[in-house]
Amino acid sequence: MEFRIARELFLSGVQKVQGIVEAKGAMPILSHLLLLAEKDRICIQATDLEIGSKAFYPANVNTPGAVALNARKLYDILRELPPDSEAHLLREENNWVTLKCGKAKFRLPGLAAEDFPSLPDYSEDSLMEFRCSELREMVRKTFFAVSPDETRQALNGLLLEKENGSACMVGTDGHRLSMITRSLKQTKHQGQEKLSFLLPKKVLSELLKLMEDDESIFGFTEKSNHLAFIQDQQVIVSRKIDGKFPNYRQVIPTDNPVQIRVSREDLQHALKRVALLADEKSKMVRFEIRPGALTLISDNTELGAAREEIAIEYDGEEMFVGLNARYILDVLNVIEDEKVTLNMKDQNHSCLITSDEDDRYRSIVMPMRL
Amino acid sequence: MNDSRQILHIDMDAFFVSVEEVLDPSLKGRPVVVGGDPDGRGVVAAASYAARKYGIHSAMPLARARRLCPQTVFVRGSHGRYAEFSRRVFDILETYSPEVEPMSLDEAYLDLTGCQRLHGPVLETAQRMRDEIRSHVGLNASIGIAANKLVAKVASDYSKPNGLLWIVPGMERRFLAPLPIERIPGIGPRGAGELRRLGVRTVGGLSALPRDLPEEVFGKWGAALYFKSRGICDSPVSGAREDHRSISRETTLDEDSLDAAFLESTLSYLVEKAAAQLREAELFTRSISLKLRYSDFQTVTRSHTLDEPTAEDSEIFRTSVRLFRGEIGARRTRVRLIGVCLSGLTRRRHRQAGLFDTGDPLRTDRLYSGIDRIRRKFGFRSILRAASRTEPI
To answer: What is the predicted ipTM?
Structure first.
């Protein structure tokens, strides 16, 4: 095996799989990535046996072949090579690999390509097709709400639903929920049936790294126990999560007489400041809502106290509610619109956050009891 | 006068029974037991001095008390009544000093240091205190006076019933030396047994041991004996009850045990005790620690911090039993002491509501306030978790 490839291209390909590769596992081969050289391109593969990815990059291939290399070491080397240079890779006897670049030369002990676990079988037949920029937006705007608690398997990933030509993603940790709906590209496989999948957290965080903010197309496919996101030159495959996602539709509040319209930036900045002195664990900030003004208050006696008032569009009854500042900020951080609306009923019911320009993105935050 | 402190330990004589006698004077002089139905499985909560003459004492099964003295009058008892009498006693104590530290309903420390100019000589002041309690509340109090809490407590105990004893500063060791070691607070029947095996029977014998020996044999508890046996104690009388830093409950088992089910039932009981005190103080805990001492005196603690503060038995138990199983799983050594400690205490609990919660979020709050009310009226052991051991600890 022998090929030459632009350093930048190689580096970005190797970088993208660092999150999948296990640095310290029981199986040494899993800390490696697989390099396959064929015709005019190379393929970089990685897997942790739960998820796997492969991507193709144009290269000048002299001799086709394959070898597994330590992913971290290869990344470290490529990172230190001079910009705009070219890397020259040659596999020698016993899977030793020589990497040359300019006057630098490295010899790396590789492992046999045959020992590298193959990626699970995946389907190429798209059930849904996303514009890359939209898929990225959908994941980014719901991913933070996913539960970090690995014991709650069904909440440990995002729900992806397809219905009537639209896709909906929902993330929740049981205390807050974010959901987004976007239209799908028309596909050949235009079934009208409702589909529903649970996407594991890790595939989502890796997906976020792969996706550029462009209009290329990502297809979503399913085959037996595996899901895949497929783009022109790259694929990411994952095992499905078992478990029943809670009935999220029934917790979307419909009766919200209290509606507070506020500048997203004002709220975001004030809340960040007041939250500095909120209880470290609960991060509770009291929202005191009065006509024309919202007062944010932290009065944790141990840490001190903070309060700030901001202008709001509201002329209803006075109302006090306790909310986890982190949950609210997570939502405000991913909304681009200028104004957001907090829709509430009373201090015991959920707060629905919407933005004026996008009624297909909604977040729900449960209050804390004061 | 020298600069030593003047600490009083006030201890009401047979408090529960005496309250019953005030309320029903016909009981006076008769053997009376507070604790409920003698046909039930309860135990003696308190016994009058007349009953004690028959060998009846606290924590004895009621049925046995009746066998010892068939003419005993059994009274169910009411926490509310006792709390009311206790308050009246404390109202009197607080007119003497702001530094009153309640230990229980019927027991308190009081610091009179520097009050001679105001109240006169300490012995007369203490006598006045006793007279006042006697005439206003109708109860007898025994008072021990000494330069520290330890000796004051031993002195009040020694002076019972209806006594007053002042241990003049400098006389502490001579007073303590001939007493049996069980008189020292903190030396229970088990500790006393262990000490007797070392040939120690009296406090004097204890103070004669080489300084390092008790510590080598008993660890920290042993090290403290050096000072206790000499009547040395510098713990202050903490008047305005400072905020709890932690609440803990532990017990040395009657016999070292490997029986996980038994140990867990003991743990459950201790958790209930600690959690009840937590709720009484209107606090919530965030950090739960399990303490185990093995028969080789090795002591381990294991802790877990919760996401949200709680005061619920079930949650505290769930966490502590998980710590227990994680710890005990690896060991085959018998357990000598088991305990639970609640820390990270906070007055507030901002409970995060859940999206998918079903049912009334305040239900468990009501459950626990109901349990606490039942206990205030009928005593702690009147209602217990099914997982808790039922024999007294």
So the answer is: 0.74
